[in-house]
Amino acid sequence: MIQAGTLSGWREFYARRKRLALTGLLAGLISLSALVIAPSPASAALPEPVDAATARSYLAALPVATEDRTGYDRDLFPHWSSQSDGCDTRDVVLQRDGSDISVGDDCYITGSWYSVYDGATWYESGDVDIDHLVPLAEAWDSGAGAWTTDEREAFANDLTNPQLIAVTDNVNQEKSDQDPAEWMPPISDYHCTYARAWVQVKYAYGLSVDDAEYAALSSILGGC
Length: 224
What we know:
Layout: H1 7-37, H2 52-61, H3 89-97, E1 98-103, E2 109-114, E3 121-122, E4 128-132, H4 136-141, H5 149-156, E5 164-168, H6 169-175, H7 191-204, H8 211-222
Antiparallel strand pairs: 1-2, 2-3, 4-5
């Protein structure tokens, strides 16, 4: 209680009001900060490939043919198409495959990413590539050369099949456009999943396999 007529009482009264005002302002700023930077959950689960038995049946149904890369150009597969909220396909996969994801202005994404190919974890999105599990050049070699541009764009931005995955950039670059007869992920425990996904994508798009690719996939799936 302020004692009437005392200067010290009024000073204490105004000092108390100032402290309360500053406390309220600080609380408001903390709440606003939490609203802006609070991590958002991953937007979707990585599409799970078909089981091994189904993959084996898909592989048996795929045409076996010699590959032909005549006329291939990566630009014939428009990729990282615009999605929702100012994000593109790459951004969507980064959100889906990451942990502790936060999305800022212009779909700037922060978080961490575990690469199932090599077991590395990354904390900068620039250290992560979005791998086309069946590479664009491989798709061209095995049938996509006859597709329309719209069909190639759909393939290059496929978020439904297990075709796009965030992985360590230099591992993806090491893979390049090689098929399973030429390259498999460094972590052998992922080989079954990789082969199942590869066959599912090729089956979904009616793509062919060559002899060596067929033999490698058959061997891997046989041990799943």
